[in-house]
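Memo to structure team: turn this sequence into structure tokens by end of day. - J.P.
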Amino acid sequence: MRLGAVLSALRPALPLLLGLSLGCSLSLLRASWSHGAAEERCLAPGPPAPPARGAPPEAAEGRPGPGHEDFRPRIVPYYRDPNKPYKKVLRTRYIQTELGFHERLFVAVLTSKATLNTLAVAVNKTVAHHFPRLLYFTGLRSAKVPHGMVLVAHGDERPIWLMYETMNYIHQHFGSDYDWFYIMQDDTYAQAEQVKALVTHLSINQDVYLGRAEEFIGGDEQARYCHGGFGYLLSRSLLLKLHPHLDSCRNEILSVRPDEWLGRCIIDFLGISCVSQLQGQHYHTYELAKNTEPEKEEEEDFQAALAVHPVSDMTLMYRLHKQFSRIQLDRVYQEIQDLQMQIRNLTALTPAGEAGVTWPVGINAPFLPKSRFEVISWDYFTEQHLFSCPDGSPKCELSGASKADVSEIIESAVEQLNHLYQPLLRFSKRQLLNGYRRFDPTRGMEYTLDLLLEAATQKGHSHVLAKRVSLVRPLSKVEIIPMPYVTEATRVQLVLPLTVQDLDFVANFLDMFAMNTLDTHDNALLTLLFIYHPYDAQRVGQMDVFAGVKAMVGELEKRYADVKIPWISVKTEVPSQVKLMDIVSKKHPVDTLFFLASVWTEINMEFLNRCRMNTISNWQVFFPVHFQEFNPALVYRGEQTASSNTDFLRDGHFDRHSFAEACFYNSDYMTARTKLAADILDRDEVLESMEVFDVFLHYSGLHLFRAVEPGLVQKYTLRSCNPRLSEELYHRCVLSNLEGLASRSHLAMALFEQEQANST
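Reply from structure team:
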């Protein structure tokens, strides 16, 4: 009975046990066979068998050959000489530098002093913004370099010398940073996107000399050089091999044309001839005839050309750019239509059928909210007004980018209707009855328009009708904006303005500053700004209202011997943020990184690092949106919170009405402040209605980065709003106090409890 019970219990596990046993047995047998075969090879008498024909000697010894070195990982053991002092390893700024990545394409444009302000400018305006890096090379430079162009002058207009110096310069400064080098003349029009697409389909491990192949005059019939007028492409490996021979080419090769000289140099020393086709990719070119009309060119060679030459003047360059842009746009529209047709055909085969096709075809479906809190609201607008304003007002005038957006979307709607119904009907807009828009983060901006249209038939009859149309402005390709390099090692100078109303909160601020910056040895300093009322300033000798704060500062300086906390005293009735910052700015170097703080701010290292990273000199300033805690008396209504649970500190909201905190460089502030002074002249009363945010917004031209900052937390307090400030600043202060009381649900519960208490 016991044996039967045990077998019945083990019966489900028997297949597993049998499989494990069989697997172990086969593994042991295979290991013994492999060991025996290895012994036979080791004990076999006679010389080793010769390697196969063409195999390298390393392959016979079981080691990979030279061609496999790039594909076998090598572990380099770390060894440090104990006799040498330890040095900190300096890491590179970017990971692509450390890993040895290269940029893809560098473009060099050969120009001259005579054409620098004409053809070179046309090249710069048409294709320069499509290439990642483009430089202009000339022999002699003019007195004034056109704006937005990086020019390298070699000091000699001789064509061969210009080519020689250009190749040397490219190798010296960019030879180790780029994989491909495209060289063109300023009388060449190149399709930038086509050139970039070409290099993505070519292997970087080959020596490439690609362009329009031309025969040498009276030379070898097999050798070819690349015509400079149509541009040519050089690989990095070819440039590295060519550089040691440039001096010899300059002394030994005689030629009138620089492109022939370069081609002869590459052929003589590297044995590589120019080709027009490589790895299945064709370098298409088109030679313009005199008095050519680009708009009338319909040849396939013209439409497929990567480079067009010669371009005689600026106007022709712009006309070529317009025509090729139109050709490229037509190709894109046709490709979109083909893809949409394929999507429709494939969707019909899915379980959802044709009902699964979203509109527009190929664009993500609208966002489907899972609860009422995720519903994306629509904004109502007309041609003159917007009924969802940034400042919270119910109605505001439609202006700026919003007005341009509405005008463009109405024009596009009428154009699409005419394209759909022509030639039977012709529509013209009379009035926008209703307009709605919302931003869907999954697809883009959505619009719904109620248009009052006048429809005209072919016979001249017209009729007024209302029609509703829906449009989508989809999100385009995401681009990474290049930003200057910043580091977390920058020293932050905290500036803390203090008034008499802030005295109760100074002790907590100094304690947090000492714990999170001084104890951790963070690279941050503090400057206090004491704002005296004129009445208090007259009684400083008898009773200093900031005496307690100064005593606390003295205690901190005794506790931290290497720390000095200076203070500045200011007498004013209206503590204008701009006027106070003017005083602080004059007492610090121009490269100082300021963090303008408030007394309710809890300083921590996490935020200070973000302040350093988000503030870029001469590029960007950072205005964080702090997290404001709600009033615990309304949120918790007498429940025990502070002693046992700290999660209540996070029960609040991001105060978008406050601009008290800011990170910026002193040099940027001084530049913007100088422009402001020239604008307002001697009207200092204007400064009382402005904040530092307004100075940067209207007078700096820098990027203003405004983002929520979860690391910047402020405890609840009812702040005093100075009625002597401007109406806008006072209104923002009142709104900040009101919205910081509690959430709607907490306020509703408080009112409900109050009504219950009154009723009983």
